[in-house]
Amino acid sequence: MKKLLRTYFPFTKAVVQGFMAYRINFYVYILGDLFQIVVLLYIWFAIFSSATSEMIQGFTFDQMIGYVVISTLTSMLIANDVHWDISHDVQSGNIATSLIKPVNYQLLKFFYCIGNILINIMFLFLPLWGCYTLYDFIANGTLPNLLHLMLYLFSVSLSALILFYINYLFGLAAFFVEYVFGFIFAKEALLRLLSGQLIPLSFFPASIFNLFKFLPFAGLVYTPTMIYLGKYTGSDLQFNLLIQAVWVLLLMGLTQFVWNRAIKRLTILGG
Amino acid sequence: MTKTFKRYLKLYGMFLSQYLKAVMHSRTDFLIGFLAFFLIQFGGIAFIALVFRQIPDLMGWSFYDLLFIYGFANIPRGIDHMFTDYLWLLAGNVIVQGEFDRYLLRPIHPLFQIIAQRFQPDGIGEMIIGILLVVYAASKGGIEFTAGKIILLIVMVIFSTIIYTSIKLILASIAFWTKRSQSILFMFYSMSEFSKYPLAIYHKFIRTFITYIVPFALTAYIPASYFLGESSLMESLGLTVSISLIALALGLFIFSRGIKQYESVGN
User: Which of A130, A149, A233, B170 is deepest in the core (most CB within 10 A)?
Assistant: First the structure.
C-alpha cells in the first residue's frame, strides 16, 4: 500500500500543481457554468409561481433550490477529465511511453482523477457549499443534517467511482473513433439528462423513472442529492446505495474487458 | 468593389469544397457530431416538456411558445457555429503557437481567411433541429406564417447570426493582447443560455444586460416575440438590426486594432 502510494501519488500531485498555474482560467470557465444555474433558478421560480399547488412532484420551492444547488455541486465535485487525458494520450501516441513504464495504466489515471477531485473539493465544492449553507441558515434557519451529510459523503464517493469508470471508457473510445470531441460532447449531454442534473428524475413519467433508477447514471447525481436532502430513508436509501455499489463493480469489470480489446488495436507510428 | 467581392466568394467556395471533401471522407465523425448536438438540444426540449407536465402555462406562455423561442435560438447559433468556428481556435492556441503569422502574409484579408479556414458541420444539426422546432411549434401553437412573415423570419435570423459572430469576434480578438482568450469567450458565450426562455422571467438587471450589453436576447426571445404577437415589428426587428450592426462594427474595429498591435511570438 505504501509502495503503491509512493509510485502513484506523484501523478496526483502533478495535476494539482498544473492546476495552480491556471487557476484564473478555471474560475472564468466555472463562471460560465454558473450562468446555467442562474437560468435554472429563474426558470424554477417562474414554474413555481405558475403552478396551481405549492408542491411539485414532492418538492417545495425551497427544496427545489436545494436540489439545483446540491445537484450542481455534486456534479462539480465528481467531475474529472480522465477521458480527455486518455484520448490525448492515444491520439498523440504518448500512450506508448506510459505502456512501457512499469505502472498500471488504469491506476495511473485513477490517481490523476484523485488530483481532479482534490482540486474540485478545495477550490469549488467547499467554498460554494459554504456559501449555500450560510445562505440556507440565514434565510431559512436550517443547518445541514449530520447523518444525511455522512451518508451523502459515502454515496458521492461511489458516484465519483462510477464517473471515473464511465470517463475511462469514453477515453478508451479514442482507440475506436477519431472524432472524440463530438463523442464526449454527446456523452456529456446525455449524462446531464440521465443523471438528474438538469431536472429531478422523478419528473419523468413513472415507467421511464423506474427504468432510470436501475441505470448507472442516476447514481451519479440524483441518488447523492436526494440523500443530502433527506428524501431517501430506510429501504429507499439501502436500495439506491446498493445500485450504486453494483454499478461500480460492473463498470470495473467492463473497463478491463474494453481495455483488453482496445490494446490489441493499438498501432503506434514511429517513435 | 464587386470584383473583390466576387473573388472572395469564389475563394470561399474553393475553401468550402476542400473542407466538405474532408467531411465526406469521415462520415462517422459527421454523424457523431450531429448526434452530440442533437442530444444537447434534446435535453433542453425534454426539460421544457417535463416541466409542462406539471403546469398549464409558464407565466402566460404556452408549451409551444417556449418551443418556438427555443427552436429559434438554435437557428442563428447553428449557422454561426458552421461558419465561424475558427474564432474558438483563435481564442485558443493559434496566437501562442505562432500560426497567425501566415494569415498576415497572404494577399487576402486576414478575417476572411479565418472564416474560410474552417467549416463546422456540427452546426448543421443545430440549425436543422432549430428549424424543425420552429415549424412544429408554429403549426401546433397556431402561429400563421405568410410569405412575408417567412421572409421576415429569415431576415431576423441573419441579423441574429451577426450578433453571435460579433460577440465571438470581439472576445476572440482579445487574444491579440492576451495571447489566449478562450475562457473569457466561453464565459460570455454561456450567457446565450439566458436567451432560450422568455425575458420576463428574469430580474430587470439581467434583462437589460442581455439586451444591450451582451445582446444574446436579440438572438432568440426578442425576434421570436414578434411572431408570438408579444412585441411590435419596430421593437423586435428594429432593435435586432441596429444592435447587431453596432456589435459588428465594434467587432471589426477591435479585430483590426488587434492585428495592428499583434506581435508574433516567432517560431
Answer: B170
